[in-house]
Design a protein that fits this description.
The protein is mainly alpha-helical and 121 residues long. It has five helices and two strands, in the order ββααααα.
């Protein structure tokens, strides 16, 4: 469900959130996603691309520069990046489900074991 302070659930009919049985989903801090970019740059076998991507994520604007570098200089690495990023995001989602008792530990562990980081070019 989508909630806004002024419009309530779905943008209509304001409600008191204390009356609802909702689980809050907080965004992950940017350093978590930053680490994915750093890990990708470190693990790809194309050394020049790895160095350039690692350089791109230094300082402010790292996310934009990383994306631009991939799209402009290494578009052949985009499918590998998307697969890498998506697997990690899915594992984080399952970890969150386990942490909030929405999925049992065994199911979460099985999912994580079945979804390792993909092999990188």
């Amino acid at each position: 469900m989508f909630w806004t302070a002024d419009g309530g659930i779905g943008g209509h009919t304001p409600v008191d959130l204390d009356d609802l049985d909702l689980t809050r989903i907080d965004p992950l801090p940017s350093y978590v996603w930053y680490q994915d970019m750093a890990d990708f740059a470190e693990r790809i076998s194309h050394e020049a691309a790895g160095r350039r991507l690692a350089r791109a994520i230094q300082g402010k604007g790292a996310f934009r520069r990383f994306k631009d570098e991939l799209h402009e200089e290494y578009p052949h690495l985009l499918p590998a990046w998307y697969a890498f990023r998506d697997v990690r995001a899915k594992r984080r989602a399952v970890d969150w489900l386990v942490d909030n008792s929405l999925v049992d530990d065994e199911t979460g562990e099985h999912f994580v074991a079945e979804h390792p980081d993909p092999d990188l070019p």
